[in-house]
Amino acid sequence: MVDRLANSEANTRRISIVENCFGAAGQPLTIPGRVLIGEGVLTKLCRKKPKARQFFLFNDILVYGNIVIQKKKYNKQHIIPLENVTIDSIQDEGDLRNGWLIKTPTKSFAVYAATATEKSEWMNHINKCVSDLLSKSGKTPSNEHAAVWVPDSEATVCMRCQKAKFTPVNRRHHCRKCGFVVCGPCSEKRFLLPSQSSKPVRICDFCYDLLSTGEMTACQSTRSDSYSQSPKSSLNDVSDDDDDEDSSD
């Protein structure tokens, strides 16, 4: 079905419309063999609060952006190669329902659909696209993925020292290795994580010690299940992260 659509006029026209919605700031999306599988609005759990984002699923990439005018204009385009994607369902928590994790080596985050049916359709289509890509390329699924950041609202104190309270002066920061919300003194060190950045990035002291001694597996395991287990609390806008690659998220 996808192969038949690849060179169809209807598919080319649909992709062109998406390109036009992102405008000159967006990357070109039309390439031979690319097919637009589906699109829709999902709620992305950003570092300050959940935000609506427009998502487009192609047979080889996942694209999303901020909604400026629904179906007419989007900005801050993000393109994720599906070969590097793995997804995991997450349990419903309060108002956050029908969610799953999108995990890649460079960035991982949670999204939520409006209904359980919509969630199932998104996950099935993503898994099918990833499976087809890996089958054609002969590659194996990626085992490395960036940590899912704990939202600001889930930490009133540093998740490492458990002492420093966050205020407008004592700001929140995120460890790029474990995703925890930490204070400045607990995250003064930098470490090179090539999958995330060409420059050393902020990490907490705990992860730094493990990475420095080569115990990377132990460091990763500290974060693997904490997202779905951590309690949800009221959302706030107390602080931002000074070295966040995307200040809106």
UniProtKB/TrEMBL annotation:
Keywords: Endoplasmic reticulum, Endosome, Membrane, Metal-binding, Protein transport, Transport, Zinc, Zinc-finger. Its main location: membrane. PROSITE patterns: PH_DOMAIN (PS50003), ZF_FYVE (PS50178). It comes from the Eukaryota. One of its GO terms (cellular component) is endoplasmic reticulum. Residues 221-232 have a biased composition (Polar residues). It is found in: Early endosome membrane; Endoplasmic reticulum. SMART domains: FYVE (SM00064), PH (SM00233). The keyword Endoplasmic reticulum applies. It is a peripheral membrane protein. One of its GO terms (molecular function) is phosphatidylinositol binding. One of its GO terms (biological process) is protein transport. Residues 152-212 form the FYVE-type domain. Residues 238-249 have a biased composition (Acidic residues). Residues 221-249 are annotated as: Disordered. Residues 35-131 form the PH domain. PANTHER family: PLECKSTRIN HOMOLOGY DOMAIN-CONTAINING FAMILY F MEMBER 2 (PTHR46280:SF1), PLECKSTRIN HOMOLOGY DOMAIN-CONTAINING FAMILY F MEMBER 2-RELATED (PTHR46280). May play a role in early endosome fusion upstream of RAB5, hence regulating receptor trafficking and fluid-phase transport. Enhances cellular sensitivity to TNF-induced apoptosis. This is Pleckstrin homology domain-containing family F member 2. It comes from Geococcyx californianus.
